[in-house]
Amino acid sequence: MKKRITQINRTLFELETGILIFGVVCQLLILLIGNRPGYSLGLWIGIVTAMLGACHMWWSLDRALDLPEKAAVRSMSTHNIIRYLVFVLVVGAAAVTQIANPLLIFLGIMSIKVSAYMQFLTKKISVKIYGEEILPPLVEEEPAGEQDK
């Protein structure tokens, strides 16, 4: 299992871990308030949507890095719009069908933002699974005037 997890991009793993931790904490709060199935269903629809959105974000960023600057900006803008439209459609569909609480779906989707702020915690989990991150040495650039000599 560890081998399979370490094949996942480390940053994506940390983001997904944070989303899951936030989902579990919110679920515990829902249980304390009063367990209504629509609340739990809404939360987990939002969490799954956030996790899929995080995967899409990683994929689109990875893809855009191989493109020239203008094409990369256009590609990232297009994928951001697609991702936000999917988020709106998910919340809208829940509001129309009343299958789950749309506010809790929105809360679940916002877990992607909360997860980014939980990076200090998810980094510790990542280090336990992946080991210490070994970064390449910094490349020092020569000052502009010294290149001409």
Question: Strands, helices and their partners?
Answer:
Layout: H1 2-6, H2 10-33, H3 37-64, H4 69-97, H5 102-109, H6 111-117, H7 119-130
Short description:
The chain has one domain (8-131). 76% of the residues lie in helices and 0% in strands. It contains 7 helices and no strands.
Q: Determine Rg (CA atoms, Å).
A: 20 Å
How much of the residues is beta strand, in percent? under 5%
Overall spatial form:
flat
Distance between the termini: 55 Å
| Secondary structure tally, helices | 7
Question: Would you mind describing this structure in some detail?
Answer:
By secondary structure, the chain is mostly helical. It has one domain (8-131). The chain is built from seven helices and no strands. The longest helix is centred in the middle third of the chain and has 29 residues, at 69-97. It is flat.
Task: Throw out a few tags for this protein.
149 residues; mainly alpha; 7 helices; flat
